[in-house]
Amino acid sequence: MLDKKISEANSGFNSDILKVNDLKQLEDIRVKYLSRNGLISKLFDELKDASKEEKPLLGKSLNILRNDVTEKFNLLKEKLENSAGESEKKPDLSLPGIRKVIGSKHLLTQTLDEVKSIFKGLGFSIMEGPELESDYNNFGALNFPVDHPARDMQDTFFITEDFLLRTHTSPVQIRLMNKYKPPVRAIMPGRVYRNEAISSRSYCVFHQVEGLYVDRDVTFAELKGTLVSFARQFYGNDLKYRFRPSFFPFTEPSAEMDITCYLCYGKGCRICKHTGWLEILGCGTVDPNVFDNVDYNHEEYTGYAFGMGIERTALLKYGIDDIRVFFENDFRFLKQF
Ligand code: DAH
């Protein structure tokens, strides 16, 4: 009888102790098994009723049980006391907090967002095209003659004879006009590539925003009005501007738009190469040959287009003098904006 009770007490204790999570529960276990009125004491009391032959063996078993239970109890007690100490140490509310670094948008993304939102306000929608482009969309359809220097290997990253990394966002104009009938009015932001030596002024990859508006009776005056409105919102109301005649194969007539130099306010300095002016974009009315290439009737429709570099736009607005900082991602530069 008693030997059965001893082994039941042993397995009971072993399963009870597994459920203990804290010192309070452990104390309940001590009371149940090891206290003066506990189970093990009671079993020792019962020893006196055992027969003479059984007594030594049962006594031994009971001693083993008591030692085993005591040892396991002490081990767990020590462990729980230590971890209780640790968790008490953890939250020291008097320590200064750890400041998390909050990220922000890259200056180029901020600039692009601002340009997009101004043109959205002027009635333009947004379209994008692929960076891998056909030679035809990038040059041919835009009225570049076959021997135009821009097609030269030195400027263009050719992938195959017929495909290349687009050198400007103007091919998205072609995609837009091939997809939609007039009227169309959209800006087309994106990344472009040129095989140029890297310096403070040029980089092999940069961003442009293209613009196109085609409808009946679109005039050069409307182009000027739109671009001046953009420039005033982006660079400031007091800005002076001018349009200079220029040449692009896909616009006729073509122009470049300048604003007064932000650094010297027109007096002439290093940044504006002593002219007092900074070029901000190229533009013009769409060449009829381009309309022919996309099956738009050039007798019926006219349009204007423009294109600007986003890095250049940001350089001018924020007075940065090296284009490479946009791509190096030096935290000390980025966190200023
Ligand atoms: N694609 C020209 C460039 O990369 C920029 C440009 C000029 C775009 C005149 C136009 C435009 O749409 O009308 O230099």
Overall description:
The strands form two sheets. A seven-stranded mixed β-sheet has the order 1-4-5-9-8-7-6, sandwiched between helices. The protein has a two-stranded antiparallel ribbon with strand order 2-3. The protein has two domains: 88 residues; 227 residues, Bira Bifunctional Protein, Domain 2 (BirA Bifunctional Protein, domain 2), CATH 3.30.930. Strand 6 and strand 7 form a beta hairpin. It is elongated, with a radius of gyration of 41 Å. With 337 residues, the protein is of the alpha+beta class. The protein has twelve helices and nine strands. Helix 2 packs antiparallel against helix 4. It binds 3,4-dihydroxyphenylalanine. 3,4-dihydroxyphenylalanine (DAH) binds next to strand 8 and strand 9.
What is the compact description of this entry?
The chain has helices at residues 2-18, 23-33, 39-46, 54-89, 107-121, 135-138, 171-179, 220-235, 288-293, 310-318, 325-328, 331-334; strands at residues 125-126, 132-134, 163-165, 184-193, 205-215, 241-248, 251-260, 277-286, 302-309.
Shape summary: elongated
CATH class label of the largest domain = Alpha Beta
Distance between the termini: 84 Å
Q: What fraction, in percent, of the residue positions are helical?
A: 40-55%
The stretches of 5 or more residues where confidence is low (pLDDT under 50) are none
Q: What's the total helix number?
A: 12
Q: What does the average pLDDT come to?
A: 91
CATH topology of the largest domain: BirA Bifunctional Protein, domain 2
Placed side by side, the strands forming the largest sheet appear as 1-4-5-9-8-7-6
- Spell out which ligands are present: 3,4-dihydroxyphenylalanine
Strand-residue proportion? 15-25%
